[in-house]
Amino acid sequence: MPDIPEIVEAIGKEVKEIGANTKKNYEELHSGYEEIKSILKTQGDADPITQDHLDKLTSDITTRQEKADEASAVATKASEDMTKRMDEIEVAAKRIGKLGSSGNTDQDRKLIEDYLTLEKSLAAAGQRKMSFGEMLQMEKEPNLEKLNQYKDAFYEYLAIDEKAMSPESYKSLQVGIDVDGGYTVTPFMSNRVSSRMYETDPIRQLVSVETIGTDAYEMFMDNDEAGADWEGETVQNDNEDTPKMAKKRIPVHILATHPKMTQMLIDDSNINIEAWLSNKVAEKFSRTESAAFVTGNSIGQPTGFGTYPAWTTNGTYEHKKIEQVNMGHATQFTTDGLIDVKYSMIEQYLMRGTWLTNRLNVRDIMKLKDGDGQYIWRPGITEGQPAMLLGLPFRMSTTVATAAASALAIYLADWKTSYLIVDRQGINVQRDPFTKKPFIEFYTRKRVGGDVINYQSIKIGKVAA
User: Fold this and answer.
1) Contact of 77 with 91, CB cutoff 8 Å
2) Which of 26, 40, 217, 300 is surrounded by the fewest CB atoms within 10 Å?
3) Helices 71-97 and 20-42: angle between axes, nearest 10 degrees
4) Cβ of 393: how many Cβ atoms within 10 Å?
5) What does pTM read for this prediction?
6) Which residues make Cβ contacts (< 8 Å) with residue 160, sequence separation at least 6?
7) Which fold does the domain 198-225+243-465 belong to in CATH?
8) Strand, coil or helix: what is 446?
9) pLDDT score for 119
10) Three-state SS for 432?
């Protein structure tokens, strides 16, 4: 288990390397893409061993491209994460300082120097919230001898039981533990939490978003056109077609959860446990609502753009329906099928179109070529640029279906005009310390809706039955 100076050193290194990982990711993405093209050119993909190698390469590339597509969002979040890490270091330093003083040893000074070095780095980057030097001066100097004794006793407790511990170890254990903290609260445990990453959909990044102060959003939809006909010198035009307007109503729905934890855990944990919980809930809310924007059934949740019925006749506009373009093949993508989807959209929307499909579909799309032998899928060339498919931006989703018979496997849309997300408010948290003592309940909810607002600016590629 690393000690505090090692953790501080790692954080300082992380500050200096912001952005380096993104550049490396792009370099490796392009290297893998060139290797795929070389293999397909020289060996093809019929051999099972070669196919397995290609699958691994495409899986790696799609993962890297997904990270590249989110580069701007990651860059924004980096500043917030660094501030959070500073808060955690401050908490750790305060906990160490409260254990008493045994003199200012060389190791003590090294610990303080590590904090001050990081403070200067963060201050230079504009990330410093408070002075570590000032904070440490307010506390007693760290007693590393007692800290090491407590560390050994804590591991002994984990291996056996407090009743079987030696009196010396048991005494050391009590020195490092608040009476209400529990054995799980220890300043020696790293305050870096290894989190499982979940796939999500980039819908909010693509579509339009409105914030309202009521329970529903209403708008007029101009889905009709006026009549017109030729008139002769002596022939009267009898055309009286008048365009009609429709009203669209998008209600907001409640997304909620009721997590709880003890006050003791909140008080004594060596991480900001409330911030950790709020981040976990926010991430889950984001994944849940993003999936609903694709497949939501409108019953107590948003209406997904993948749930609308198909037009009766391709190319013929129908209100409250979305055109589904049959891509021809019964189980997979083809270049001709994707071209059909692309050019089913009128030019005004096509020039702003962006593809959306499951990243597992990319491994098949990545191998497709046009009539000139050029690959129709290309990775982003520079940082922040998305992949391109048939000359249009390409984004990856986890909710869109994978290629199979009758699957709605790929979408092309001018997303800003086709779909609208409606937010009633941000995430609201009500802290209840009374109802379920000794637990504190965090009633967390968000009110959000979503629906298609232009049925002409979105097209769906459907795998043939």
Assistant:
1) no
2) 300
3) 140
4) 17
5) 0.64
6) none
7) Major capsid protein gp5 fold (3.30.2400)
8) strand
9) 55
10) strand
